[in-house]
């Protein structure tokens, strides 16, 4: 996809709203403006039905039931609710340890720090290998009757690693722990139609799946809902777990986006995106660019993700030189502006200097094969220009 003159290769930061989603949202903005919690008139009932339909679509994406969907403002809030919402239950259950992988999103890691500092829980980090896969033996060694929660993301946002959530979930449950899975990046990468069978709490984000920003969900197994304490108090909407009037057009858009990623057409889309991603990397190498892939091999990687170490230039210099022709990102977009090397790249064994010279290109639904080739040529030319100039990195 080109936005004006810019090739957009930053789909893991955010995705453009799919036009089919937008049409449904436009109808919701104009025709179904009611408050879904207004139970005394027909306009409210229609809004309630639209929300119920969206909950069904989101639930079906992960194999859950509609009453298990709690809409939030996004995956950051969902992750906060999953972790901090269990703090009181830690007291009641007598379990005081939480295990997180080293490459979780910052919203999980930061919530973990709050659990440790304000609630006195013991939070341990599980290391990953060079591919970003959770060390299952290390996890098993940490699991005991004191573990309340294991939080493992399904697909990593920087290096695209696909985790074995089924096996990890089974290990955690065998020890009596709850399982949280941050699946914000998963729907575009893999089929997660049975994820609710392996995880008790699942975080989703609409703007990562071609839906609108400002909406996401925490899908919570019915039996686990009583364990959760809300973070937002008020009118008691959504079983009292997340008060606030639901933003109907956003819920409708999120539901429509989720539906587009359920089923066979999603598989075809992943294959097409994978082919474009492979073409991008092959063209880059064919152009003579010295790029090394960070993270997993293709089998275990998000089909749209290429995280490349380009030794001769820093990511910051290259990204600046690529403006306005190409949009990509260094590390995760959420961390941009914070001048520290990516914790994910460090966790898989890169040095800080190598992390600084790594770029994430993320292709998506709207990327064409032509753009993949064009982008590779643009990157290669920019790397060559920078490597021979004063901005050369000293790796
Ligand atoms: N988890 C992961 C894996 C993500 O990639 C992101 C977005 N970068 C989030 C959580 C946060 O999602 P949101 O922007 O919806 O708050």
What key attributes describe this structure?
39% helix; 14% strand; 395 residues; binds 4'-deoxy-4'-aminopyridoxal-5'-phosphate; Aspartate Aminotransferase, domain 1; 13 helices; 3-stranded mixed sheet; Aspartate Aminotransferase, domain 2; 2 domains
Note down, in words, how this protein is organized.
With 395 residues, this protein is α/β, with parallel strands linked by helices. It has 2 domains: 2-17 and 264-387, Aspartate Aminotransferase, domain 1; 19-259, 3-Layer(aba) Sandwich (Aspartate Aminotransferase, domain 2). The chain is built from 13 helices and 13 strands. It has helices at residues 19-31, 42-62, 75-84, 87-93, 106-119, 136-142, 165-174, 248-260, 264-286, 315-321, 343-347, 352-356, 369-387, and strands at residues 2-3, 6-8, 69-72, 97-101, 122-126, 147-151, 178-182, 201-205, 216-220, 291-293, 305-310, 326-327, 358-362. Strands 3-9-8-7-6-4-5 form a 7-stranded mixed beta sheet, with helices on both faces. Strands 1-2-12 form a 3-stranded mixed beta sheet, covered by helices on one side. The longest helix has 23 residues, at 264-286. It is globular, with a radius of gyration of 21 Å. The two termini are 33 Å apart. The mean pLDDT is 94.
